[in-house]
Design goal:
It comes from Pseudodesulfovibrio karagichevae. InterPro entries: Phage_tail_APC. This is Phage tail assembly chaperone. By secondary structure, the chain is α+β, with helices and mostly antiparallel strands. The chain folds into three domains: about 5-85, no CATH class; about 90-135, no CATH class; about 135-190. The protein contains three helices and 14 strands. A five-stranded mixed β-sheet has the order 2-1-5-8-7. It has a three-stranded antiparallel β-sheet with strand order 11-10-12, with no helix packed on it. Strand 13 and strand 14 (about 130-135) form a beta hairpin. Helix 2 (about 135-165) runs antiparallel to helix 3 (about 175-185). The longest helix is centred in the last third of the chain and has 31 residues, at about 135-165.
């Protein structure tokens, strides 16, 4: 529905207008058939009415603040837009790492910090140090589970090798390469950077 700005500085739908003692019905503000836009704007401007056009805000309400509306007069239209979009500041819950965006001037709860979790899901907040530290126990358990998954995924190749040997067939795989791979997986917890960083061995190509 078309909106209008009136001489009393209010904005709204078409309504009755009294100008210089003469009453103009709401229908007078409607653009007439075959009437050009320029002629329509000029006609209602005479009685102190300006058509309003809203420019849609295209920002992200979760991460941005649109700011106060700005009004500009363009080609007879009162254009209302939000050109002063600002980014909100990300804060993280110290207990859950949950992300929250805060607009300028808003109060930030003490349970949140602007420091991004350093170790993603394995970050735990150290209140004394005032920083995120690595939850080594949980990270180590996860990496060991990943190691076990990789071993289980390749175990069938050893079983195939054993079956081929029993049947007197030429083995598909080089058992030495598989043994080396499996031993490298067993040695993952012994890597210098474990569990903060892990270098996963490459599985031998499956012929």
């Amino acid at each position: 529905m078309q909106q209008y700005r009136y001489t009393d500085a209010t904005t709204g739908a078409a309504r009755q207008v009294i100008h210089n003692g003469q009453v103009y019905p709401a229908s007078y503000l409607t653009r007439r058939t075959a009437e050009s836009e320029a002629a329509w704007i000029e006609r209602i401007a005479v009685i102190g009415v300006t058509p309003v056009k809203y420019e849609p805000w295209t920002g992200d309400p979760n991460t941005q603040s649109k700011g106060d509306p700005v009004e500009t007069l363009t080609d007879g239209w009162l254009v209302i837009g939000y050109p002063n979009t600002t980014d909100k500041t990300p804060y993280y819950n110290k207990a859950t790492r949950e992300l929250m965006y805060v607009a300028e001037g808003q109060t930030v709860p003490d349970t949140y910090t602007a420091l991004e979790p350093t170790y993603d899901l394995y970050s735990t907040w150290d209140e004394v140090a005032g920083e995120w530290i690595l939850d080594t126990e949980r990270k180590a358990a996860n990496e060991r589970a990943e190691r076990d998954t990789r071993m289980e995924a390749a175990r069938w190749r050893i079983e195939r090798y054993q079956s081929e040997v029993r049947l007197g067939r030429t083995p598909t795989d080089d058992i030495a390469e598989l043994d080396t791979y499996f031993q490298a997986l067993r040695d993952v917890p012994s890597q210098p950077g474990f569990p903060a960083s892990v270098e996963w061995p490459t599985e031998p190509e499956n012929n």
